[in-house]
Amino acid sequence: MFNLGWASLRQVKLFFVSGILCALVFGMSTAVFVQKASAHGNVTNSRAALCANGQNQNCGQIIYEPYSLEGPKGFPTGGPPDGKIASANTWFTQLDQQSATRWSKVNISAGSYTFNWSIKVPHATTSWKYYITKQDWDPNAPLSRASFDLTPFCSVNSGGALPGGTYSNTCNIPSRTGYQVILAVWEIYDTNNAFYNVIDVNFINNPDPIAPSAPSNATASNIDTTTATITWGASTDNVGVTGYGVYNGSNQIATTNGALVANLTGLTANTTYNLTVKAFDAAGNVSTASNTVTFTTLPVIGPDLEPPTAPSVLHVMGTTTSTSVPLMWAASTDNVGVKEYQIFNGGAYVATVPAPSVQHTVTNLTPNTAYAFIVKAVDDAGNISAASNTLNVTTPSAPTTYPAWSSTTVYVAGDKVTYNNANYEAKWWTLNEKPGTSAATVWKAIP
Predict the structure, then answer these.
(1) What residues are paired with 370 via a beta bridge?
(2) Which is a GO BP term held by this UniProt record (predicted)?
(3) What is the per-residue burial (b if ≥16 Cβ within 10 Å, else e) of 119-142?
(4) What is the pTM for the complete model shown?
(5) Are strands 228-233 and 261-264 parallel, antiparallel or unpaired?
(6) Residues 275-307: pLDDT tens digits?
(7) Of 49, 87, 173, 354, which residue is least crowded by CB atoms under 10 Å?
């Protein structure tokens, strides 16, 4: 028998740690360990997407999760911090590396351009916003708010609409030269999050720096509960006006291909709007705004007999446990307003969720049991929508419980413990290394 003192035990531990690390490094060609993330959507030629298709190199594990750059919404006052904008402050930190030559670039010209999104999990959307770096930004410094023009050059209001598997915005890109970065932000309607994608671009062929004149005499007519018409006088340009955008505040709500009238739909009843119109040309130059047109849509008159639309895309949002299922769905719409959502399991009432929330975790479930959830929307008049899609979920079996981890116990390879309601197995000898922490590589999570 060997008599190993404390120092010798530490040496054995370090030897095994080093061995494991070497095995991981040299075994990456046959086994890749990827942290699971929630995949939702990305711009198809973004920095992350070009990592996934191999055009960008040394990107880290974003190559497996180009759809997962999710962070708090509210940019520029909120959102990811400076220096972490490209990664959305996630663990994909390689994306925040920044220099004039670090990333592949997409050739682009000022003017009309279509941004294409690949949507893995559709979510009701507040808006799609696009920002661009200033002409004199520093491409060798980390991306920060000082790098960008903080007024989006394109802002498309979706009002809670649900995108499909693909989605596109055709925007008017302003005049720039050389290497620039575009920040695309997909703001989710019913959560506090957004998706952030940066696109590295190189401007070519931009001979026209002159913007059109401002549209004149904008007026509104045909105002109803959810519709209105806005007209304006034509702008002039040294080359030619390509089209016009209609804005409610900073959100673009309509565009025309040169027509001097826009028929607006999808407005909210009894709501005040402050609209302006801007002209743009083929080179991406945008005029100053027209005069502001202010109006209030009409209220709904008489009894409300119209039910909300059915909630859609009911899905699991998070991790299902043996006793709980986190649900999420796309918001319903109503001619007046949605009051609440009711959740059912196979016809049995489960819970009520006040609008505008579209999330709820159903608890106190039975392990290893099948459930069939639906959601219905209810308005203030008591009108009830049709049911959402049915979500069939089977809860997993209850996890095995092992002895509680103790900071004073010596564990060896194969020992199993429970800590913070999760189970772990030791890979090698350990003492006082808390499971579930990034530093404690000795522990692996087990069911």
Answers:
(1) 394
(2) polysaccharide catabolic process
(3) beebbbbbbbbbbbbeeebebeee
(4) 0.53
(5) antiparallel
(6) 999 998 877 788 999 999 999 999 888 888 899
(7) 354
